[in-house]
Amino acid sequence: MRYRVEHTTQYEYDAEVTASYAELRQLPGDIDGQRCVERSITTVPAADHLSEHSDYFGNITTTVSIYESHTRLVVTSSSVVDTSSRRTDFDDDARRPWQTYCSSNASAGDLAAVEFSMDSALVTRSDELAEYARPSFGDTTSLADGVASLCARIYADFEFDPKATEVTTPLVEVLQIRKGVCQDFAHVMVGALRSVGLAACYVSGYLETLPPPGQARLTGADRTHAWVGVYLGDDRWVGVDPTNNQLAGPRYVTAAHGRDYRDVPPLKGVIFTDAKKSVLTVSVDVEPQPTT
Predict the structure, then answer these.
(1) How far apart are CA 208 and CA 288, in angstroms?
(2) What whole-number percentage of the chain has pLDDT above 90?
């Protein structure tokens, strides 16, 4: 599979903005079995400064500075990504008992095993999360079966409701109300895995949205998405999506990964303005591309 991903963010302000500074994590890298063929970011007004660097977690991070006064800002990221090598199933390594993969059994110097099994800003381990996870992880359960079970249970137990939560809604509240969006479900799964000693990361990216049978595909109707990376050791991960109860296979495009959402927001920034109000519009298109 090969996709062209276009992510457009537009802000309209009720007063002039004299300067904008932004940091973006929207450009896919060569990670999780995908290969980025081309990528770019454009802005209106045009950026006075635009550069790329890798952040602490290795994500492609773009910084943008705009000094031209404006009341409308448009940021568009565009990339072409080959996803044909993304995982479509758990490999044999994940068929061993799940306890094998606990951070307490990690090899010396495996920083990821330690770092991604600890608490983070938005995901705190708890007895409640461990209790929720335990039915999926019996004494003889393999990692693959345990992860698949937990993913299926979150999918069944939690209701997708974009009005139920906000970015700042505490994880403990999400666990209680059993409602939220993909970000919440990913945080619940990450927290549950960490609470039983496994290392897991939060993944931000894109998912091709398939139209209902018989209906045309709508441009711009796709979305940013969030799922979970489960650590297998030796810098190997497998992506699992509790929102859709499936592995993050070739229809997924990874943009960034971190400990939780706070590490990898698609766009954050600072503006200098007297504006009191702004209107945000986001459009995402994940379009299949022909391969040669």
Answers:
(1) 8
(2) 82
* pLDDT bracket for residue 26 (50, 70, 90): very high
SS3 of 183, please? helix
pLDDT number for residue 220: 45
Joined tokens for residue 220: 């711009």
Q: How far apart are CA 115 and CA 254, in angstroms?
A: 20
221: pLDDT strictly greater than 80: no
Count CB atoms within 10 A of the CB of residue 10. Answer: 15
Whether the CB-CB separation of 280 and 235 falls below 8 Å is answered with no
Cα 210 from Cα 162, distance rounded (Å): 20
Helix (H, G, I), strand (E, B) or coil at 103: helix
> What local confidence, expressed as pLDDT, does residue 292 receive?
64
Q: Which two tokens stand for residue 156?
A: 């069944």
**276 Cβ neighbours under 8 A, 6+ residues apart:** 14, 15
- Give kind and range of the element (H or E) at residue 175: helix 171-177
> Which of the pair, 168 or 205, is modelled with greater confidence?
205
Dist CA 285 CA 78 (whole Å): 10
